[in-house]
Write a structure and sequence with these properties.
About 80% of the residues lie in helices and about 0% in strands. About 60% of the residues are buried. Helix 5 runs antiparallel to helix 9 and helix 10 packs antiparallel against helix 11. The protein has 14 helices and no strands.
Length: about 425
């Protein structure tokens, strides 16, 4: 258990530090809001590719092998970039290109690690039966702790220099690779045939469409993630350009928000025990929507920090509900393929947000966030209406750890992926 926690924590901290530090580095060195949005876009576009192929790779090669390989590759990438930035001008074009390359390639590798570690987490959730939400809350607690420390660590390291920041990310990646746990025996279950990525994704897409509760959840979270992504992409611009504070203030705001989110995740576990998944998820969605609306109207850094904290608290509760539902609803035999499809659908708003922030002037970002907040509220209301209607499909079944509603199309032998 200690090794598993170290593996997940070091990987999550490396990912969060780089995710927040790279666009911040671009803004500090270039003072260009367009390049800052472009950096966020370039971080997330390759991640879509990682999500697309990550599930099939996990199904074929095992989660632990995929994780270890991706973590080692990220270590080499960051170490090489750190050496290069040590000898080139800090604010030149070459440094900007190196930083954007690390953001793009590192983002791909980070999300390959995420798919693999989520697959390992799903095994533990299925084994826990009715206590699946408790397992997920522990794992999400690790992720939220990284969200707490990552932005602040990135801001502090950038104050010293980008070389140190990349060196620390490389060291964390090496730690994650060294502490990789072996996938459980069920992950090695044989299955006839090696499937192409396209066929695997078709199966995942059919599974999503065949589980109405999962489809409604993905629909709502698409709009929710768009609002969150716009908030994240515009945060350095808002704090530094609009409020006139330093890069350390950006990391401090998001680290404080991570602390609030961590507390919300811890409280969410007991709340689900007492009230169930749907009420807790609906409450989290309501808090997130209201906080996003307030963030768009925040007049100063103090109010902005409070609204960001409330936003991340709502998102933390939603994350527990999402992962618990996902572990209950997706059959184990198609978990990797379906995980890829659901994550791609949920993560698409990230590069879209980067493109929007890059295209709009800083003065228009509050209006953009306001529009996203309204869209989020409407989409989440429809999503939770659908989840209530199909609530029987995600009720816990202690004797059936891999529930498969009757509406899910059963793949033929030639179309079935290897077990995740």
């Amino acid at each position: 258990m200690a090794r598993s926690s170290l593996m997940r924590a070091s990987d999550a901290l490396a990912t969060q530090t780089a995710t927040y530090a790279i666009p911040l580095l671009i803004l500090v060195t270039t003072r260009s809001t367009a390049l800052t949005g472009a950096a966020f876009l370039l971080e997330w576009l390759p991640r879509l590719m990682a999500f697309t192929i990550g599930g099939p790779l996990v199904d074929r090669f095992r989660a632990d092998r995929v994780f270890r390989t991706a973590a080692l590759a990220r270590m080499l990438l960051c170490a090489t970039a750190a050496c290069a930035l040590a000898v080139v001008p800090a604010a030149g074009t070459v440094a900007t290109v190196i930083a954007m390359t690390v953001g793009a390639v590192g983002g791909l590798l980070s999300q390959a690690c995420f798919v693999a570690v989520e697959t390992l987490g799903a095994h533990a959730s299925r084994a826990a039966g009715t206590d699946a939400h408790r397992v997920q809350s522990v794992q999400i607690g690790i992720d939220q702790s990284a969200l707490l420390a990552g932005p602040l660590l990135g801001g502090l390291l950038l104050a010293v220099g980008p070389t140190l920041m990349l060196t620390v990310v490389a060291a964390l990646s090496a730690t994650a690779a060294a502490s990789t746990i072996t996938a459980p025996p069920s992950a090695d279950s044989a299955c006839s045939g090696v499937r192409a990525v396209a066929a695997s994704l078709r199966t995942g897409w059919r599974t999503v469409r065949g589980i109405p509760a999962l489809a409604w959840l993905v629909t709502g979270l698409f709009a929710s993630n768009l609002a969150l992504a716009v908030t994240q992409a515009s945060a350095p611009i808002t704090v530094i350009t609009s409020y006139g504070h330093s890069s350390i203030a950006v990391g401090t705001v998001w680290s404080a928000a991570g602390l609030v989110s961590l507390a919300a995740v811890a409280a969410c576990r007991r709340a689900i025990d007492h009230f169930g998944l749907w009420p807790v998820g609906a409450a989290g969605a309501a808090v997130a929507c209201a906080a996003c609306l307030a963030t768009a109207l925040a007049p100063n850094l103090g109010v902005y920090a409070v609204t960001i904290g409330a936003l991340m608290a709502g998102e933390g509760a939603l994350t527990v509900v999402l992962r618990t539902l996902r572990a209950r609803l997706i059959p184990a035999a198609v978990f990797g393929s379906t995980l890829s499809v659901t994550i791609v659908l949920i993560v698409v708003p990230m590069p879209v947000a980067g493109a929007l922030v890059a295209a709009l002037p800083a003065s228009a970002l509050s209006g953009l966030l306001l529009a996203c907040a309204v869209l989020q509220g409407l989409a989440m209301a429809l999503a939770f209406r659908g989840l209530w209607h199909h609530r029987a499909s995600y009720a816990p079944h202690p004797t059936a750890p891999d529930p498969a509603p009757a509406s899910i199309p059963v793949p033929s032998e030639a179309d079935a992926p290897r077990a995740a």
